[in-house]
Amino acid sequence: MQIPHIVPTQDSALNTALTAVINNKTKPLGSLGSLEVIALQIGLIQQTTRPALMQPAIVIFAADHGVVAEGISAYPQSVTWQMVENFLSEGAAINVFARQSQCSLHIVDAGVNHDFGTRPKLIAKKVGFGTKNFIHEAAMTTEQCATALTHGIALIGGLPGNIIGFGEMGIGNTTAAAAIMQKITGLPLVECVGAGTAFDATRILLKQSVIQRAINHHDRVATPLEILATFGGFEIAMMVGAMLAAAERRMVLLIDGFIVTSALLIAARLRPEILDYCVFAHCSDEHGHRQMLTYLKAQPLLQIGLRLGEGTGAALALPLVQAAVAFMAEMATFESASVDAISPLDA
Ligand SMILES: Cc1cc2ncn([C@H]3O[C@H](COP(=O)(O)O)[C@@H](O)[C@H]3O)c2cc1C
Ligand SMILES: O=C(O)c1cccnc1
């Protein structure tokens, strides 16, 4: 398997040209805040002073986790496939928000512990019926990890647009994401473990001790791909492949919450240039997400107490990203609108 090659977006001449376009719009300098940062970023990604977003898509990667046997989630594993059914019948939060943001939604079975049969609307990329319990053995084999990455890479070729939001579904995956976070960032485990779907302190303590035992058990695991195969999930590995391929294709990557960002931690360790292509939709209320974002030097767009996943933060932030590109394309300049620009004394 070939890890996609990603080109850094930095280009000082284009940066200057884009900054001039942004600053010539009829507004005080810098007054559109984060939208200006995103407009500049997308101009650099698309290598143009006239960026445009087409056919936005959100892809939900679903899979199950063997570590649920340790009681780390408040919900049973069956919820994963039941929620996939809910996505397919358009009843989940992400269906509502994707409709509202007018983006297409794609659901991938990366490794759910359920036989869905043949379903036209479900993208069947099942690597296995859930991962192994990583407290005893690696969650997946090296081959399964490579297969998941390869499927993720291939999926991107089937998308017509130039912006992709990442979402996930998998009972137990906040435990996998917390383990990945600890291994990649080196932060103390207590900083990495949050409640997930649970709300009782006892379960958080249980999660911490399960992950600590697993980390001790797999004490030689060090490279990003080893970390992914040992502690990850099929949906997380498939997201890593899809993220790398999307950045290679110069798409905008809309990053959702805690689990999606854990996939990005792996992708960024493999290809640091990927961060040039990422827009961070929100800061989740999941304990640990803020620290992950700080580690990646990321500025999230929203902080509205979300802790759901599914790509809901990405769907909600999409209109803001579209607004950034729209103001570049549609706002008048000081010259075209005959508005007096900044006076030379203050310039
Ligand atoms: C009904 C329901 C819908 C969800 N949609 C996303 N998640 C979120 O919660 C799960 C992770 O939390 P934990 O690690 O505690 O199991 C993931 O499936 C995530 O996408 C859901 C969870 C539930 C219960
Ligand atoms: O931040 C997230 O994406 C998240 C948090 C809790 C549960 N599921 C997802």
Write a structural description.
It contains 13 helices and six strands. With 347 residues, the protein is α/β, with parallel strands linked by helices. It has two domains: 12-52 and 327-346, Nicotinate-nucleotide-dimethylbenzimidazole phosphoribosyltransferase (CobT), small domain (5,6-Dimethylbenzimidazole Phosphoribosyltransferase, Chain: A, domain 1); 57-321, Rossmann fold, CATH 3.40.50.10210. Strand 5, helix 11 (258-270) and strand 6 form a beta-alpha-beta unit. Bound molecules: alpha-ribazole-5'-phosphate and nicotinic acid.
Q: So, the CATH homologous superfamily of the largest domain?
A: Nicotinate-nucleotide-dimethylbenzimidazole phosphoribosyltransferase (CobT), large domain
The rounded distance between the terminal residues' Cα atoms is: 53 Å
Largest sheet, order of strands side by side? 3-2-1-4-5-6
Q: What would the average pLDDT be, to the nearest integer?
A: 97
CATH topology of the largest domain: Rossmann fold
Major beta-sheet overview: 6 strands, parallel
**H/E element string?**
HHEHHEEHEHHHHHEHEHH
Quickly give the structural class: alpha/beta
Bound molecules: alpha-ribazole-5'-phosphate, nicotinic acid
Pathway: Nucleoside biosynthesis; alpha-ribazole biosynthesis; alpha-ribazole from 5,6-dimethylbenzimidazole: step 1/2
InterPro entries: Nict_dMeBzImd_PRibTrfase, Nict_dMeBzImd_PRibTrfase_bact, Nict_dMeBzImd_PRibTrfase_N, Nict_dMeBzImd_PRibTrfase_sf
Keywords: Cobalamin biosynthesis, Glycosyltransferase, Transferase
EC number: 2.4.2.21
